[in-house]
Prior knowledge:
The protein has 434 residues and is mainly beta. It has helices at 7-25, 31-39, 42-53, 57-81, and strands at 108-110, 115-124, 130-135, 140-147, 152-160, 171-177, 181-188, 208-215, 220-226, 230-245, 249-264, 268-283, 287-294, 297-303, 307-322, 326-341, 345-351, 355-361, 365-369, 377-384, 387-391, 397-408, 412-414, 422-433. Helices cover 15% and strands 51% of the residues. A hairpin with a 3-residue loop joins strand 6 and strand 7. The longest helix has 25 residues, at 57-81. The protein is elongated and about 115 Å long. The relative contact order is 0.06.
Amino acid sequence: MKKFKGQIWLGVLLVILGALLILKNFGIISIGVWGLLWRMWPLILVLIGLEMMVKDKTAREIISLIFVLIILTLVLVGVKRGYRFERRNFDLKDMENSMSGLLTDSFLIATKGDTVAQFQLKEKLDKVENVEIFGGKFRDLKIFISEGEPGIFEANLVILKSETPFYPDSLDFCASKSETAIILSVGDKRKLWENKNLQWKDYKKGWNGELWVKVPSGVSLSLFNVNGNLEIRDLTLKNLDLDLTNGSIYLTGLRVNEVGGGSTNGSLHTESTKGIKFDLETTNGNIYAKDFTADEDLSLKSTNGSLSVENLRGMKILLETTNGPIRIDGLKGKKIHLESVNGGITMENVSDFEKLTAKTINGGIRAKVDAKWLKGRAELSTNIGSISLANSESVEIPISVEDGKVIGHGHFSLVPASKANIILSVGMGSVHLE
């Protein structure tokens, strides 16, 4: 029976595909090689056409051999570019020890479990003073930043399992350097998450990832991250600029001169943080600050969220919320301004102020006062709501009530405004003294 011309070629193709499937099942190659080969599929049509045109059997066998060599070359290129590495379990705790050598290109490690792939970068900074990180186009990208070796920048990107297939050649993960800055970009080139036609049912589209970064002490850090949380721990910085969307910010053990920015659709948590100036805000998220110290100005603003502070210190302090309450347990500052719209203010252990202003719209004010309030002057006002003051000490505190019915007496004395340490004003409500 006469054999058709493509029989040799078809046999070679089946052998190669079978071998590749075996290598993939054993985890020796990853999906990245398949993507590389898929790009070259038109070459198959070219080879079939050549074989049909060539009648000589020896020539057709040579063409088949060339095809095999091309496939093998593509696989080797894929390995060299980082589309295949050793198969192993991946432990995030061992991530710090998994880097070796200074790398000019990122590479991939195929792994098991919830980790799909890992990419790593490690670069010398020399005289670099600024580090900028752009993280976007991910459904969820969590970023963890800590202190690294002097003069070294490290970035470790972990892709986690999601319902959207991962294609390494669509990943944007690279670092560029200038004389004074290094810029790290992370994202999905296909821009799945930026599709304006996404419906709620498409929420699970896009990649999940974790980005672990180490920067040297003393640099300025700017970070722009879309759809993910940010955590910075035990790091000394010159300045910090934050701009997050759909993610929360966690700052712990931070030493920095100035901090600005915030998060949209996310909360702010900061603890054991010190600096000179802070200007942070959130939209659709709460703020919680504990053991927070600013040598000069400190501003915290929350829209559609609460604001809670413990042991907060600063020269000039501004705490402001819209559609959320303010809760204070430990606050020291020369000039303090508190303002809440559609939320109340609760104060305890407030001291060392020269001037304290607390104002609410559609919310009450509750404060525990003591003899330390005699050192400054406080003005508390609300248009709709009550003001309650509790003085547990025996020393009477002079107050003045400009508007509102007074209920109770406690350890307070009513005096003219010019002689009062606390001036109270209530639009629709009453003043309660305990």
